[in-house]
Specification:
Nucleotidyltransferase, domain 5; alpha/beta; 5-stranded mixed β-sheet; about 290 residues
Amino acid sequence: MALTDPYYAVIEAGGTKFNCAIVTPDRDIVAEVRIPTTTPEETLSATVDFFNTQREAGYTFNKLGIASFGPLDLNKASATYGFITKTPKPNWSNTDLANALGSALDCEVVIDTDVNGAALGEYRWGAAQGAGVAVYVTVGTGVGGGIVVNGKPLHGLVHPEVGHMLVEPPAGITGTCPFHANCVEGLASGTALGKIWSQPSHTFDDDHPAWDGLVEVLGKMCHNLMVLLSAEKIILGGGVMQKPGIVDKVIATTEHTLNGYIVFPEGVSMRDVICTPGLGTRSGMLGALALLD
């Protein structure tokens, strides 16, 4: 496909909010709204209302790109293709996204995970341009990771679940994931940090011990991604990663755990591999556009 239409509808569907927009092929956002992720009925109804309003304003579109939280059924032969499957998000398990929105808006729909979308957006226009293997990890309410190999999102059996990679927890800490306890999401997400330390993660002081534990977990995650995928880019995004200096500490921890094992190509360092998003906070939304290209 190519971006030849004047306008496209895109959704970055997150567990906290749906970012909906009308976007041009040049990535100009001409209309945008944030819709709280409440119940499926309320959220999808408000989403449809927004896009219908944009059509009435003259922003006609025929294609909708959705980069959504998951897990998702991405098997096109499945009766539940485009559904959110078993998710910790209350009320959202077994929710039809792609078919319901495509039918309500009478348009073609392309759907993938929010992090696969973000990874593809970064590959097309951001920090992962030219990378054969690129990983985008978001650390926020949850932890998710998308992987792009040779310009295409990785799916396989289902799709990557980087956030549910098991890691050894920091000393004295037990993870909170209801499925796996000590996975990256159960130890490093904003939700997990709040439960582990009995206070919201955004209230942590700079010297709070939670930050050291977070860096340790993410360093182990990056170590695993390096040795498993030979990743050329590991992009760390999401709200938790906005804390100044945290990415530098993850880089240092990954270097320490790898212990010189990986020999980098000449002129390439760990700082070239582990980095922040080139598209800033727009990786997911523009990733939804990239899914249509």
